[in-house]
C-alpha cells in the first residue's frame, strides 16, 4: 500500500488526511511514478480552501519528481527507469503521495545535472519564472521590476534571472530576515512592507518615474500599491492572490493611473504547447545546471507533516522553496 494525502471537504490545513491506497498498473497514456520528492506550492492551498473548486474527495499537490516504474499502452515520451518531473493543474492533482498513476503527457525528463529533489522544488516555480521573464514583457537592460514576495520560491528565481538580463529589481518582503535573503539573490533594493509605504518607496527609488513592471503574487492587499508604483504605460502582472482575490474595479482606473496594462496569466497557458514548454524548461534547467540560478530548498517535510507544511506556508514562515522528501 502507498501513502497519499487527500481531503474530503474544503477548509483549513486540518482537512488534509493521510490515507493508504493501492496503486495499480498504468492504463493507456499513463505511467506509474514513484516519487522521490514532491513540491509544496501556495497554489495547493487554493485547492484545499476551495478557491479552485474541484470535485471531492481529491488528492493534493500538482508537482513532483521521481522514477518511472511502469508505462501503459501508447506512451512514447518516457520509458521505464526515466527520471522525470512534472507540474500542471487538474491533470496532475494528487502529487502528495509516495507513488501514483499519472498521465505521461505532462512529464519532463530530467537532465543529469538536476536531482529529483531540486526538480520538485523548482518545476512549477521555474516554469512560472521562465514565462514571466521570457514571455510576458520585452524586457530591456536597465528596466526596473517591482517584485512582491521577493524571498519566496518564485521571487528568488525571478530576481536571479532578472540580474542575468540586466534589470534593476526592487523586492518587497515582510521582515528583515527575508530582506537579507532577497538581497543575497539579486534584489538591488528591498522594501519591508510591514513598515514602509511600497508605492512611495518605489517612486523614490526610481526618481519619481515608477517601475516598468510589477510582479504581484499577493493580490488583494497589494493591488493598489502595485498600480501606484508603475510608470506611465507600465505593466501590472497579477501572478497570485496570497492575501485574497482582487476586488472588482472599474478599468477606467488603469487610464487614470497612466494608461496602465494589466494581465492575470496562468502557467497552464504557457506550457500548453509542448514545444514552448520544452523551450521554457530547457532555459530554466540550463540556468540551474550551469549554476547561474540557484534553487534554495529551505524547508523539507515528511509527507505525514502536510498539515504543518500548509500552516507554515500560509503564515509566511517559509522562504525559497519547500518540498516533501519521500
Automatic annotation (TrEMBL):
Sections of the chain in a coiled coil: none
Listed InterPro entries: ADH-like_C, ADH-like_N, ER, GroES-like_sf, NAD(P)-bd_dom_sf, QOR-like, Quin_OxRdtase/zeta-crystal_CS
Assigned keywords, A-Z: NADP, Oxidoreductase
PANTHER family, A to Z: QUINONE OXIDOREDUCTASE PIG3-RELATED, QUINONE OXIDOREDUCTASE-RELATED
Superkingdom assignment: Bacteria
Protein name, UniProt field: Quinone oxidoreductase
Keyword Nucleotide-binding: no
